[in-house]
Write a structure and sequence with these properties.
A seven-stranded parallel beta sheet has the order 3-2-1-4-5-6-7, with helices on both faces. It has a six-stranded parallel beta sheet with strand order 10-9-8-11-12-13, with helices on both faces. The two termini are 12 Å apart. β11, α13 and β12 form a beta-alpha-beta unit. It is of the alpha/beta class. The protein is globular. The chain contains 18 helices and 13 strands. α1 packs across α18 and α4 packs across α5. It folds into two domains: 175 residues, 3-Layer(aba) Sandwich (Rossmann fold), CATH 3.40.50.2000; 192 residues, Rossmann fold, CATH 3.40.50.2000.
Length: 377
């Protein structure tokens, strides 16, 4: 069968590539065409555009690149219609993908599947109307979404979480011990605090300086920055002061050997928890007070981190917008570095959250359901 996939960021590239591998295992004749990244290209098929040419974050960057965004959207719609796939698989990235879904549903008979559903439970709940109308099957990786969509009379498939798969595969692999990791990355013997400051320049510029200032108060620990894919090392150079180091393409190795972590909200918070690394969620924003007001009045959920959302309670401390300060980071991190009750409680809650997520195998389950549905058609 012919599969057309669209992703808009690095995490989507990872999850889509694993889904493609699983589809190839059950469909030897699988053909892929996609808007995606390097990981998807490594699986095979033809890449039309790299996701880095699509991803714009924030009102001003989007406004400045409207012509490019509309051009990409137009090309994508035309390319799908010309290629005539057996299915269109959208991966997260709702601003772009829901527009594509609307067009394909209206103009063609190509079924539209959505893998990693849009997070409309947090923001823009009205999009459920578009999803009901334009998406044939929705595949969720977050267990609480089942009840949310059921409340809107829309049945979805919960397939497990691909982060569980990725971390499980790493932990079962022959990864190096801490001594070899330290030597290979030219680190010191001090305990490591991982700094995961986001995947976009705007996030890094907002969060990394305060993370490093807080780390200045812990000279017995070494801060190690996880370099974001697609961000040149030169961009990080101004931040590499007072012993801070940076490593690329090794976030899982870094988390495995870290004592604690400072993490910008997103998939990284969940991955950090799956490695059982105590963390503080750090999310600074421009116009912090305005953001905090909007969050209180318009955000539909109590939390921003996946860890807390899945657990249904505050497991990790979230320092968001006006709460994000050097003093607050210092205060929360200090509770987690020693052998403290706060550290033990967080690790116990991590284990409960992992049970809620379920066993590995999300990509395989999603591929099996997709292939079965398509064969039936």
């Amino acid at each position: 069968m012919k599969y057309y996939l669209i992703v808009g960021e690095a995490s989507g590239d990872l999850h889509a590539s694993n889904l493609m591998k699983s589809l190839k295992n059950i469909d030897p004749d699988a053909q892929f065409r996609f808007f995606g990244g390097d990981l998807m290209s490594a699986v095979g098929g033809e890449r039309v555009k790299h996701y880095r040419e699509l991803a714009y974050m924030g009102f001003i960057p989007v406004l400045m690149h409207l012509r490019t965004i509309f051009s990409n959207m137009s090309r994508c719609k035309k390319d799908i219609v010309e290629w005539q796939p057996d299915v269109l698989i959208l991966v997260d990235y709702p601003g772009f993908n829901l527009s594509i879904a609307e067009y394909i549903h209206k103009k063609t008979s190509i079924p539209v599947y959505y893998y990693i559903s849009p997070k409309i439970w947090a923001w823009k709940e009205y999009r459920i109307k578009n999803i009901r109308r334009d998406v044939d099957e929705l595949f969720s990786i977050l267990p609480f979404e089942v009840d949310f969509f059921a409340g809107h009379n829309y049945k979805i498939h919960y397939v497990g979480n691909p982060c569980v798969d990725a971390v499980d595969a790493f932990l079962r692999s022959d990864y190096e011990d801490k001594e070899n990791f330290i030597n290979s990355e030219s680190l010191s013997d001090k305990p490591i605090v991982a700094l995961l400051a986001g995947s976009r320049k705007q996030e890094i510029e907002s969060n990394l300086p305060m993370m490093l200032q807080a780390m200045d108060r812990y000279p017995d620990y070494q801060p190690v920055i996880a370099g974001a894919p697609g961000i040149d090392k030169d961009f990080y150079t101004p931040y590499l002061t007072k012993g801070a180091r940076i490593i690329y393409g090794s976030t899982y190795r870094l988390l495995k050997h870290s004592r604690a972590a400072l993490v910008t909200s997103g998939t990284a918070t969940l991955e950090t928890a799956l490695f059982r690394v105590p963390q503080v969620v750090c999310y600074a924003t421009p116009m912090a007070r305005l953001y905090s007001w909007l969050k209180r009045h318009f955000l539909k959920v109590k939390y921003v981190s996946l860890v807390n959302l899945i657990a249904g309670k505050e497991v990790v401390r979230e320092l968001v917008a006006a709460d994000m300060s050097v003093d607050n980071v210092d205060n929360e991190l200090g509770k987690l570095l020693g052998d403290t009750d706060a550290r033990d409680e967080m690790l116990n809650e991590y284990d409960r959250m992992i049970d809620i997520l379920g066993a590995p195998g999300a990509s395989e389950r999603a591929a099996e359901i997709m292939y079965s549905l398509l064969r039936r058609k």
